[in-house]
Design goal:
The protein has about 150 residues and is mainly alpha-helical. It has eight helices and no strands. Helix 2 (about 20-40) runs parallel beside helix 6 (about 95-110) and helix 6 packs across helix 8.
């Protein structure tokens, strides 16, 4: 995914750079992860650490960069009225493999506390649908996360 993000800035000669910056895409991913973590009404340090781990691994961020991104994501998620503003950045800029990776990251975050709540499962289903990820692919991503735990 990080290579895809870098490619956004490498426009061909005479071409234009994509409209979304790396920071916007990272913020969108972080906000979706925070949203998933908050749905069980218990956004604790365990879930926050899962968000931090997923973002650090995926975007190769320093600890300080990741903390700043999480704080921005928490604020953006708190202000958001729907998920679409975050999802459209992925839909427009990433292929199917990157979308699947985001779904997998969401599963990692919601399972961080050892429980899956109905709201958490529902939001991943909705996000998956908006990203054109099939139910089967979503289930396979979930299974990969559970197997890795």
């Amino acid at each position: 995914m990080i290579n895809r993000i870098k490619a956004l800035f490498e426009a061909p000669e005479g071409g234009s750079v994509e409209e979304h910056s790396v920071d916007e895409i990272q913020l969108a991913a972080a906000a979706l992860l925070v949203e998933a973590a908050c749905l069980d009404e218990s956004y604790d340090e365990v879930e926050r650490e899962a968000v931090r781990r997923a973002l650090t691994q995926e975007f190769k961020l320093s600890e300080e960069e990741c903390e700043t991104l999480i704080l921005q994501a928490e604020a953006a998620q708190h202000e958001a009225t729907d998920l679409y503003r975050f999802i459209r950045k992925f839909d427009a800029n990433f292929g199917h493999a990157e979308r699947l990776r985001l779904i997998e990251m969401l599963w990692q975050v919601v399972y961080a506390d050892g429980e899956l709540h109905a709201y958490e499962s529902n939001v991943i289903r909705r996000i998956g649908g908006m990203l054109h990820v099939t139910d089967r692919e979503r289930s396979e991503a979930r299974q990969r996360v559970l197997t890795a735990q």
